[in-house]
Amino acid sequence: xxxxxxxxxxxxxxxxxxxxxxxxxxxxxxxxxxxxxxxxxxxxxxxxxxxxxxxxxxxxxxxxxxxxxxxxxxxxxxxxxxxxxxxxxxxxxxxxxxxxxxxxxxxxxxxxxxxxxxxxxxxxxxxxxxxxxxxxxxxxxxxxxxxxxxxxxxxxxxxxxxxxxxxxxxxxxxxxxxxxxxxxxxxxxxxxxxxxxxxxxxxxxxxxxxxxxxxxxxxxxxxxxxxxx
Length: 229
Fold this sequence. Notes:
Blueprint: H1 14-24, H2 46-58, E1 63-67, E2 84-89, H3 92-101, E3 108-112, H4 119-122, E4 130-133, H5 142-153, E5 159-165, E6 197-200, E7 206-208, E8 211-213, E9 216-222
Parallel strand pairs: 1-2, 1-4, 2-3, 4-5
Antiparallel strand pairs: 5-9, 6-9, 7-8
């Protein structure tokens, strides 16, 4: 069950916050499989691992960037489905461990990068077809969500996978980076069209507005590019 936990992050930037959260919060307290939390276990990602490769094949998504890749726990099971995979995370210790542990994978690389302030470096030196934002924007205040979405629209990336909650009727902002809330990207303030594909995660239940919900998805959009005036 997903619940919100925060630590004191006053006066810290996002680099310091997420490295601090990683070191001080026991994200693996409910399970010992993944240091990235219950959302990265094989059980939680069963449907995702089953469907994602087929969707990528359908839309000819071969080269992919995975933002906040964490410890690579679930993605390692399907990474062979891609021609090239880049895992990006702001937590330096995670990237260091991934590089050491998965150094023999020819089609895989890991890099430390901030998707908010240095989006272009996340996708540099490669023609990527899609970017994955699984469990990422739910932790960003709205102004930074907007900044990432604007960067996407102005990039060469054609598709984006985003964690999207289908039954949320009102989106709420958060003040701190390590907060959490579900977001529905088809309503205000985002008002995107309906996704072209959605992979439901029925085992990932969460409490919101006093109710237990299981409408979490990883959904796919084809990006509409901003046109020059």
